[in-house]
Amino acid sequence: MSLTNQPDPEARRRVVEQDLGNVMHPLVQHKALEQKQMVVTGAQGSTIVDADGSTYLDAMAGLWCVNIGYGRTELAQIAAEQMQAMAYYPHTAINLPAAQLGEQVNQLMGGDYHVYFVNSGSEANEAGFKIARQYAKHEFPGEFRFKTISRYYAYHGTTLATLAAGGMGDRKTKFEPYAGEFVHVPAPTCYRCPLGLEAGKCGIACAKLIETTIQGEGPSTVAEVIVEPIMSAVGVAVPPDEYLPMVEEICRKYDVLLHVDEVINGFGRTGKMFAHQHWGISPDIMAVAKGIVSAYLPIAATVVKNEVFNSFLGEVAEARQVMQVNTYGGHPAAAAVAVRNIEIMLEEKLPERAASMGAYLMEGLKDRLFRHGITGDIRGKGLLIGIELVTDRESKVQLDGALVQGVVDTCKAHGVIVGRSGGGARHSNTIVLSPPLVITRGECDTLIEVLDRALEDAVAKMAGRA
After folding, report:
1. Range 135-142 contact pairs with CB under 8 angstroms and sequence separation of 24 or more
2. pTM (2 decimals)?
Protein backbone atom coordinates (compact mmCIF):
# COMPACT_ATOMS: atom_id res chain seq x y z
CA MET A 1 0.00 0.00 0.00
CA SER A 2 1.26 3.47 -0.85
CA LEU A 3 1.63 5.74 2.15
CA THR A 4 0.34 8.70 0.20
CA ASN A 5 -2.82 6.91 -0.91
CA GLN A 6 -3.69 9.87 -3.15
CA PRO A 7 -3.91 9.95 -6.96
CA ASP A 8 -1.06 12.45 -7.36
CA PRO A 9 0.94 15.06 -5.38
CA GLU A 10 -1.03 17.91 -6.94
CA ALA A 11 -4.26 16.48 -5.53
CA ARG A 12 -2.71 16.46 -2.07
CA ARG A 13 -1.61 20.07 -2.43
CA ARG A 14 -5.14 21.08 -3.40
CA VAL A 15 -6.42 19.52 -0.19
CA VAL A 16 -4.02 21.65 1.84
CA GLU A 17 -4.79 24.83 -0.08
CA GLN A 18 -8.57 24.62 0.10
CA ASP A 19 -10.39 26.61 2.76
CA LEU A 20 -10.67 24.50 5.92
CA GLY A 21 -12.15 27.29 8.01
CA ASN A 22 -15.54 25.57 8.24
CA VAL A 23 -14.07 22.51 9.96
CA MET A 24 -14.45 22.56 13.75
CA HIS A 25 -11.41 20.92 15.32
CA PRO A 26 -12.08 20.30 19.05
CA LEU A 27 -8.42 20.26 20.04
CA VAL A 28 -7.12 23.16 17.92
CA GLN A 29 -9.65 25.94 17.89
CA HIS A 30 -10.08 29.66 17.40
CA LYS A 31 -6.87 31.61 16.60
CA ALA A 32 -4.85 28.43 16.11
CA LEU A 33 -7.02 27.60 13.11
CA GLU A 34 -5.52 30.56 11.28
CA GLN A 35 -2.30 28.60 11.09
CA LYS A 36 -1.73 25.84 8.56
CA GLN A 37 -3.06 22.51 9.87
CA MET A 38 -1.58 19.12 9.05
CA VAL A 39 -3.74 17.13 6.62
CA VAL A 40 -3.08 13.41 6.86
CA THR A 41 -3.50 11.57 3.57
CA GLY A 42 -2.12 8.07 4.12
CA ALA A 43 -0.67 5.64 6.62
CA GLN A 44 1.03 2.26 6.93
CA GLY A 45 2.15 0.34 10.00
CA SER A 46 3.27 2.95 12.53
CA THR A 47 3.82 5.71 9.95
CA ILE A 48 1.51 8.44 8.70
CA VAL A 49 2.04 10.85 5.80
CA ASP A 50 0.67 14.34 5.33
CA ALA A 51 -0.43 16.19 2.21
CA ASP A 52 3.04 17.69 1.77
CA GLY A 53 4.53 14.18 1.59
CA SER A 54 6.20 14.37 5.02
CA THR A 55 6.19 11.13 7.01
CA TYR A 56 5.89 10.73 10.78
CA LEU A 57 6.28 7.90 13.24
CA ASP A 58 2.94 8.01 15.06
CA ALA A 59 3.85 7.19 18.67
CA MET A 60 0.24 7.83 19.75
CA ALA A 61 -1.54 5.39 17.39
CA GLY A 62 -3.92 8.19 16.47
CA LEU A 63 -5.75 8.76 19.77
CA TRP A 64 -4.39 5.68 21.61
CA CYS A 65 -6.38 3.48 19.23
CA VAL A 66 -4.79 2.09 16.04
CA ASN A 67 -3.51 -0.97 17.89
CA ILE A 68 -2.90 -3.28 14.90
CA GLY A 69 -1.30 -0.47 12.89
CA TYR A 70 -2.36 1.42 9.81
CA GLY A 71 -2.89 0.05 6.31
CA ARG A 72 -4.60 -3.30 6.91
CA THR A 73 -6.38 -3.31 3.56
CA GLU A 74 -8.08 -6.65 4.21
CA LEU A 75 -10.28 -4.84 6.73
CA ALA A 76 -11.58 -2.55 3.99
CA GLN A 77 -12.51 -5.63 1.97
CA ILE A 78 -14.30 -7.18 4.94
CA ALA A 79 -16.28 -3.97 5.48
CA ALA A 80 -17.22 -3.79 1.79
CA GLU A 81 -18.37 -7.41 1.69
CA GLN A 82 -20.49 -6.99 4.79
CA MET A 83 -22.09 -3.79 3.52
CA GLN A 84 -22.97 -5.54 0.28
CA ALA A 85 -24.53 -8.45 2.16
CA MET A 86 -26.32 -6.34 4.80
CA ALA A 87 -25.32 -2.79 5.59
CA TYR A 88 -27.49 -2.26 8.66
CA TYR A 89 -30.22 -3.54 10.93
CA PRO A 90 -31.02 -2.20 14.43
CA HIS A 91 -30.66 -3.84 17.83
CA THR A 92 -34.24 -5.12 17.65
CA ALA A 93 -32.60 -8.13 16.01
CA ILE A 94 -29.09 -9.50 16.13
CA ASN A 95 -26.74 -9.53 13.16
CA LEU A 96 -24.16 -12.26 12.68
CA PRO A 97 -20.97 -10.15 12.94
CA ALA A 98 -22.20 -8.54 16.17
CA ALA A 99 -23.03 -11.97 17.59
CA GLN A 100 -19.56 -13.22 16.66
CA LEU A 101 -17.92 -10.16 18.19
CA GLY A 102 -19.94 -10.48 21.37
CA GLU A 103 -18.83 -14.09 21.77
CA GLN A 104 -15.20 -13.13 21.08
CA VAL A 105 -15.24 -10.52 23.83
CA ASN A 106 -17.07 -12.88 26.19
CA GLN A 107 -14.44 -15.58 25.70
CA LEU A 108 -11.59 -13.11 26.15
CA MET A 109 -13.19 -12.23 29.50
CA GLY A 110 -13.48 -15.86 30.57
CA GLY A 111 -16.98 -16.70 29.35
CA ASP A 112 -19.24 -15.11 31.98
CA TYR A 113 -20.34 -11.86 30.27
CA HIS A 114 -22.91 -10.27 27.99
CA VAL A 115 -21.98 -7.51 25.53
CA TYR A 116 -23.98 -4.42 24.56
CA PHE A 117 -22.70 -2.45 21.56
CA VAL A 118 -22.47 1.32 21.22
CA ASN A 119 -20.31 3.67 19.12
CA SER A 120 -17.66 5.19 21.39
CA GLY A 121 -15.91 4.89 24.72
CA SER A 122 -17.92 7.78 26.15
CA GLU A 123 -21.16 5.99 25.25
CA ALA A 124 -19.86 2.71 26.66
CA ASN A 125 -19.21 4.30 30.05
CA GLU A 126 -22.48 6.22 29.89
CA ALA A 127 -24.39 2.99 29.31
CA GLY A 128 -22.45 1.48 32.22
CA PHE A 129 -23.69 4.23 34.56
CA LYS A 130 -27.27 3.59 33.50
CA ILE A 131 -26.95 -0.16 33.91
CA ALA A 132 -25.44 0.27 37.39
CA ARG A 133 -28.24 2.57 38.55
CA GLN A 134 -31.00 0.41 37.15
CA TYR A 135 -29.41 -2.72 38.61
CA ALA A 136 -29.36 -1.04 42.02
CA LYS A 137 -33.08 -0.24 41.77
CA HIS A 138 -33.80 -3.90 41.03
CA GLU A 139 -31.55 -5.43 43.65
CA PHE A 140 -31.92 -2.93 46.50
CA PRO A 141 -35.57 -1.82 46.52
CA GLY A 142 -36.24 1.09 48.83
CA GLU A 143 -32.65 2.33 48.57
CA PHE A 144 -31.44 5.06 46.24
CA ARG A 145 -28.06 3.83 45.01
CA PHE A 146 -27.39 6.47 42.39
CA LYS A 147 -23.80 7.56 43.09
CA THR A 148 -20.66 6.61 41.23
CA ILE A 149 -17.32 6.90 42.99
CA SER A 150 -14.52 7.96 40.66
CA ARG A 151 -10.99 9.35 41.07
CA TYR A 152 -9.66 12.87 40.73
CA TYR A 153 -7.86 13.37 37.40
CA ALA A 154 -9.67 10.40 35.87
CA TYR A 155 -10.84 10.52 32.25
CA HIS A 156 -13.91 8.55 31.15
CA GLY A 157 -15.26 10.47 28.14
CA THR A 158 -16.79 13.72 26.93
CA THR A 159 -20.55 13.38 27.43
CA LEU A 160 -21.98 15.38 30.33
CA ALA A 161 -22.10 12.32 32.59
CA THR A 162 -18.65 11.00 31.68
CA LEU A 163 -17.17 14.47 32.15
CA ALA A 164 -18.77 14.55 35.59
CA ALA A 165 -17.36 11.10 36.36
CA GLY A 166 -13.95 12.20 35.20
CA GLY A 167 -11.87 14.11 37.69
CA MET A 168 -10.36 16.74 35.39
CA GLY A 169 -11.67 20.06 36.61
CA ASP A 170 -10.32 21.99 33.62
CA ARG A 171 -12.40 19.83 31.26
CA LYS A 172 -15.74 19.90 33.08
CA THR A 173 -15.83 23.34 34.67
CA LYS A 174 -17.47 24.88 31.59
CA PHE A 175 -20.46 22.56 32.03
CA GLU A 176 -21.00 22.81 35.78
CA PRO A 177 -22.87 22.68 38.06
CA TYR A 178 -23.56 18.94 38.31
CA ALA A 179 -26.09 17.28 40.58
CA GLY A 180 -23.64 15.47 42.87
CA GLU A 181 -24.10 11.91 41.63
CA PHE A 182 -20.35 11.50 40.99
CA VAL A 183 -18.13 11.51 44.06
CA HIS A 184 -14.34 11.70 43.75
CA VAL A 185 -11.49 10.25 45.76
CA PRO A 186 -7.70 10.69 45.45
CA ALA A 187 -6.07 8.74 42.62
CA PRO A 188 -3.05 6.41 42.80
CA THR A 189 -0.72 8.96 41.19
CA CYS A 190 2.22 7.64 43.18
CA TYR A 191 4.93 9.94 41.79
CA ARG A 192 2.84 12.82 43.12
CA CYS A 193 0.94 11.17 45.95
CA PRO A 194 -2.13 13.32 46.67
CA LEU A 195 -1.88 12.29 50.32
CA GLY A 196 1.80 13.19 50.64
CA LEU A 197 2.78 9.60 51.42
CA GLU A 198 5.77 7.54 50.26
CA ALA A 199 5.20 4.81 47.70
CA GLY A 200 5.63 1.36 49.21
CA LYS A 201 5.04 2.66 52.74
CA CYS A 202 1.56 4.13 52.33
CA GLY A 203 -0.60 1.11 53.05
CA ILE A 204 -2.43 1.90 49.79
CA ALA A 205 -4.27 4.67 51.62
CA CYS A 206 -5.86 5.96 48.39
CA ALA A 207 -7.70 2.64 47.97
CA LYS A 208 -8.79 2.63 51.62
CA LEU A 209 -10.28 6.09 51.10
CA ILE A 210 -12.77 4.50 48.71
CA GLU A 211 -14.18 2.54 51.64
CA THR A 212 -14.17 5.67 53.80
CA THR A 213 -16.08 7.50 51.08
CA ILE A 214 -18.66 4.73 50.70
CA GLN A 215 -19.20 4.84 54.45
CA GLY A 216 -19.37 8.62 54.48
CA GLU A 217 -21.81 8.87 51.59
CA GLY A 218 -23.81 5.92 52.94
CA PRO A 219 -23.55 2.47 51.33
CA SER A 220 -27.25 2.65 50.42
CA THR A 221 -26.50 5.59 48.09
CA VAL A 222 -23.56 4.13 46.12
CA ALA A 223 -24.16 2.09 42.96
CA GLU A 224 -20.63 1.60 41.63
CA VAL A 225 -16.96 2.48 41.61
CA ILE A 226 -15.36 3.29 38.25
CA VAL A 227 -11.64 2.91 37.60
CA GLU A 228 -9.33 2.98 34.62
CA PRO A 229 -6.76 0.27 35.54
CA ILE A 230 -3.91 2.48 34.33
CA MET A 231 -4.98 6.11 34.27
CA SER A 232 -4.05 7.45 30.85
CA ALA A 233 -4.80 11.12 30.28
CA VAL A 234 -3.35 12.22 33.64
CA GLY A 235 0.06 10.99 32.49
CA VAL A 236 -0.04 7.16 32.62
CA ALA A 237 -0.50 6.47 36.34
CA VAL A 238 0.22 2.81 37.11
CA PRO A 239 -1.26 1.79 40.48
CA PRO A 240 0.58 -0.24 43.13
CA ASP A 241 -0.04 -3.98 42.68
CA GLU A 242 -2.22 -4.10 45.79
CA TYR A 243 -4.49 -1.25 44.69
CA LEU A 244 -7.03 -2.83 42.32
CA PRO A 245 -7.49 -6.06 44.32
CA MET A 246 -8.18 -3.89 47.37
CA VAL A 247 -10.71 -1.79 45.41
CA GLU A 248 -12.47 -4.96 44.27
CA GLU A 249 -12.58 -6.29 47.82
CA ILE A 250 -14.18 -3.05 49.02
CA CYS A 251 -16.79 -3.22 46.25
CA ARG A 252 -17.71 -6.78 47.20
CA LYS A 253 -17.94 -5.85 50.89
CA TYR A 254 -20.57 -3.17 50.23
CA ASP A 255 -22.37 -4.80 47.24
CA VAL A 256 -21.13 -2.01 44.99
CA LEU A 257 -20.50 -2.76 41.31
CA LEU A 258 -16.95 -2.52 39.96
CA HIS A 259 -16.95 -0.63 36.65
CA VAL A 260 -13.65 -0.89 34.78
CA ASP A 261 -12.85 1.52 31.93
CA GLU A 262 -10.66 -0.32 29.40
CA VAL A 263 -11.31 2.09 26.53
CA ILE A 264 -7.61 3.00 26.23
CA ASN A 265 -6.08 0.19 28.29
CA GLY A 266 -7.79 -2.67 26.48
CA PHE A 267 -6.99 -4.97 23.57
CA GLY A 268 -3.31 -5.60 24.05
CA ARG A 269 -2.13 -2.10 24.87
CA THR A 270 -0.56 -2.92 28.27
CA GLY A 271 0.82 -6.37 27.44
CA LYS A 272 -2.34 -8.33 28.22
CA MET A 273 -5.62 -8.36 26.33
CA PHE A 274 -7.15 -6.23 29.12
CA ALA A 275 -5.19 -4.24 31.66
CA HIS A 276 -7.24 -5.40 34.65
CA GLN A 277 -5.93 -8.92 33.96
CA HIS A 278 -2.52 -7.85 35.29
CA TRP A 279 -4.10 -7.76 38.75
CA GLY A 280 -6.58 -10.64 38.54
CA ILE A 281 -9.74 -8.66 39.25
CA SER A 282 -13.21 -9.41 37.84
CA PRO A 283 -15.21 -6.37 36.63
CA ASP A 284 -18.98 -6.26 36.93
CA ILE A 285 -19.12 -3.71 34.10
CA MET A 286 -16.39 -3.01 31.54
CA ALA A 287 -16.25 -0.31 28.87
CA VAL A 288 -14.25 -1.04 25.71
CA ALA A 289 -13.70 0.91 22.49
CA LYS A 290 -10.65 2.10 20.47
CA GLY A 291 -8.58 -1.11 20.26
CA ILE A 292 -11.63 -3.36 19.78
CA VAL A 293 -11.53 -2.32 16.12
CA SER A 294 -8.19 -0.45 16.08
CA ALA A 295 -10.21 2.60 14.97
CA TYR A 296 -10.89 1.24 11.50
CA LEU A 297 -14.61 1.89 12.06
CA PRO A 298 -16.60 3.28 15.03
CA ILE A 299 -17.74 0.62 17.50
CA ALA A 300 -17.57 0.19 21.27
CA ALA A 301 -19.22 -1.95 23.92
CA THR A 302 -20.42 -2.13 27.51
CA VAL A 303 -19.57 -5.60 28.82
CA VAL A 304 -21.66 -6.82 31.75
CA LYS A 305 -21.13 -9.83 34.01
CA ASN A 306 -23.92 -12.41 33.71
CA GLU A 307 -24.79 -11.98 37.38
CA VAL A 308 -25.60 -8.33 36.66
CA PHE A 309 -27.26 -9.07 33.32
CA ASN A 310 -29.65 -11.55 34.94
CA SER A 311 -31.15 -8.74 37.01
CA PHE A 312 -32.73 -7.40 33.83
CA LEU A 313 -34.52 -10.62 32.85
CA GLY A 314 -38.28 -10.66 33.27
CA GLU A 315 -41.66 -10.42 31.63
CA VAL A 316 -42.45 -7.42 29.45
CA ALA A 317 -44.95 -6.15 32.00
CA GLU A 318 -42.24 -6.07 34.67
CA ALA A 319 -40.23 -3.49 32.63
CA ARG A 320 -36.95 -4.93 33.89
CA GLN A 321 -35.23 -4.53 30.54
CA VAL A 322 -32.28 -2.15 30.28
CA MET A 323 -33.54 1.29 29.28
CA GLN A 324 -30.86 1.85 26.67
CA VAL A 325 -31.19 2.30 22.89
CA ASN A 326 -28.44 2.91 20.34
CA THR A 327 -29.18 3.31 16.64
CA TYR A 328 -25.77 2.31 15.28
CA GLY A 329 -24.56 0.00 18.06
CA GLY A 330 -23.26 -3.29 16.72
CA HIS A 331 -23.26 -1.98 13.15
CA PRO A 332 -22.67 -5.06 10.95
CA ALA A 333 -19.74 -3.62 8.99
CA ALA A 334 -18.01 -2.26 12.09
CA ALA A 335 -18.59 -5.53 13.95
CA ALA A 336 -17.24 -7.61 11.07
CA VAL A 337 -14.08 -5.49 10.98
CA ALA A 338 -13.72 -5.73 14.76
CA VAL A 339 -13.98 -9.54 14.60
CA ARG A 340 -11.08 -9.68 12.14
CA ASN A 341 -9.15 -7.05 14.12
CA ILE A 342 -9.23 -9.28 17.22
CA GLU A 343 -8.29 -12.33 15.15
CA ILE A 344 -5.23 -10.44 13.89
CA MET A 345 -4.28 -9.52 17.46
CA LEU A 346 -4.42 -13.17 18.48
CA GLU A 347 -2.74 -14.55 15.34
CA GLU A 348 0.14 -12.08 15.57
CA LYS A 349 0.27 -12.26 19.38
CA LEU A 350 0.11 -8.49 19.64
CA PRO A 351 -0.53 -8.35 23.42
CA GLU A 352 2.63 -10.38 23.95
CA ARG A 353 4.42 -8.18 21.44
CA ALA A 354 3.29 -5.09 23.35
CA ALA A 355 4.77 -6.59 26.51
CA SER A 356 8.15 -7.40 24.95
CA MET A 357 8.43 -4.28 22.78
CA GLY A 358 7.22 -2.15 25.67
CA ALA A 359 9.97 -3.56 27.89
CA TYR A 360 12.53 -2.80 25.18
CA LEU A 361 11.24 0.74 24.74
CA MET A 362 11.07 1.35 28.49
CA GLU A 363 14.66 0.18 28.99
CA GLY A 364 15.89 2.41 26.18
CA LEU A 365 14.00 5.43 27.47
CA LYS A 366 15.36 5.03 30.99
CA ASP A 367 18.88 4.48 29.70
CA ARG A 368 18.87 7.62 27.54
CA LEU A 369 16.48 10.12 29.09
CA PHE A 370 17.46 10.11 32.75
CA ARG A 371 20.70 11.81 31.76
CA HIS A 372 18.56 14.94 31.46
CA GLY A 373 17.75 16.49 34.82
CA ILE A 374 14.27 17.39 33.62
CA THR A 375 13.25 13.72 33.39
CA GLY A 376 11.43 13.13 36.66
CA ASP A 377 9.78 9.75 36.13
CA ILE A 378 9.30 7.16 33.39
CA ARG A 379 6.45 4.72 33.97
CA GLY A 380 4.02 2.44 32.21
CA LYS A 381 3.07 -1.07 31.17
CA GLY A 382 3.46 -2.54 27.72
CA LEU A 383 3.16 0.13 25.07
CA LEU A 384 1.49 2.67 27.36
CA ILE A 385 4.24 4.90 28.74
CA GLY A 386 4.54 8.30 30.39
CA ILE A 387 7.65 10.50 30.77
CA GLU A 388 7.06 13.16 33.42
CA LEU A 389 9.10 16.34 33.01
CA VAL A 390 10.18 18.52 35.94
CA THR A 391 12.47 21.49 36.56
CA ASP A 392 14.60 19.24 38.78
CA ARG A 393 14.13 15.79 40.33
CA GLU A 394 14.47 16.91 43.93
CA SER A 395 11.67 19.49 43.92
CA LYS A 396 9.50 17.70 41.32
CA VAL A 397 8.20 21.10 40.22
CA GLN A 398 6.53 20.44 36.90
CA LEU A 399 8.25 21.75 33.81
CA ASP A 400 6.88 24.95 32.34
CA GLY A 401 4.03 24.26 29.94
CA ALA A 402 5.69 26.04 27.03
CA LEU A 403 8.78 23.86 27.42
CA VAL A 404 6.68 20.70 27.58
CA GLN A 405 4.89 21.75 24.40
CA GLY A 406 8.29 22.53 22.92
CA VAL A 407 9.28 18.88 23.43
CA VAL A 408 6.15 17.78 21.56
CA ASP A 409 6.87 20.27 18.76
CA THR A 410 10.55 19.32 18.49
CA CYS A 411 9.62 15.66 18.19
CA LYS A 412 7.20 16.47 15.39
CA ALA A 413 9.79 18.58 13.62
CA HIS A 414 12.00 15.46 13.61
CA GLY A 415 9.28 13.20 12.28
CA VAL A 416 7.82 11.72 15.49
CA ILE A 417 4.36 12.41 16.95
CA VAL A 418 4.09 12.08 20.73
CA GLY A 419 1.29 13.05 23.10
CA ARG A 420 1.03 15.20 26.21
CA SER A 421 -1.00 14.51 29.33
CA GLY A 422 -4.28 16.37 29.59
CA GLY A 423 -4.60 16.76 33.35
CA GLY A 424 -4.88 20.52 33.27
CA ALA A 425 -2.72 22.82 35.35
CA ARG A 426 -1.83 20.11 37.85
CA HIS A 427 -0.87 17.17 35.59
CA SER A 428 -0.04 18.39 32.08
CA ASN A 429 3.73 17.91 32.13
CA THR A 430 3.99 14.29 30.99
CA ILE A 431 4.91 13.14 27.49
CA VAL A 432 2.72 10.14 26.71
CA LEU A 433 3.46 7.29 24.29
CA SER A 434 0.92 4.83 22.94
CA PRO A 435 2.28 3.56 19.59
CA PRO A 436 0.71 0.87 17.42
CA LEU A 437 1.43 -2.58 18.82
CA VAL A 438 3.25 -3.42 15.57
CA ILE A 439 5.99 -0.85 16.23
CA THR A 440 9.43 -2.28 15.44
CA ARG A 441 12.67 -2.14 17.41
CA GLY A 442 14.09 0.22 14.82
CA GLU A 443 11.12 2.54 15.25
CA CYS A 444 11.51 2.34 19.04
CA ASP A 445 15.16 3.35 18.60
CA THR A 446 14.08 6.32 16.48
CA LEU A 447 11.52 7.33 19.09
CA ILE A 448 14.13 7.18 21.87
CA GLU A 449 16.67 9.15 19.82
CA VAL A 450 14.22 11.90 18.91
CA LEU A 451 12.96 12.24 22.49
CA ASP A 452 16.55 12.42 23.70
CA ARG A 453 17.20 15.25 21.25
CA ALA A 454 13.97 17.05 22.21
CA LEU A 455 14.79 16.93 25.93
CA GLU A 456 18.31 18.17 25.23
CA ASP A 457 16.79 21.07 23.34
CA ALA A 458 14.42 21.80 26.27
CA VAL A 459 17.35 21.84 28.71
CA ALA A 460 19.21 24.28 26.44
CA LYS A 461 16.16 26.57 26.36
CA MET A 462 15.95 26.47 30.15
CA ALA A 463 19.63 27.45 30.38
CA GLY A 464 19.02 30.30 27.96
CA ARG A 465 16.26 31.67 30.15
CA ALA A 466 18.33 31.55 33.32
Report:
1. 135/223, 135/257, 135/308, 135/311, 135/312, 136/223, 136/257, 138/311, 138/312, 138/320, 139/255, 139/311, 140/220, 140/255
2. 0.93
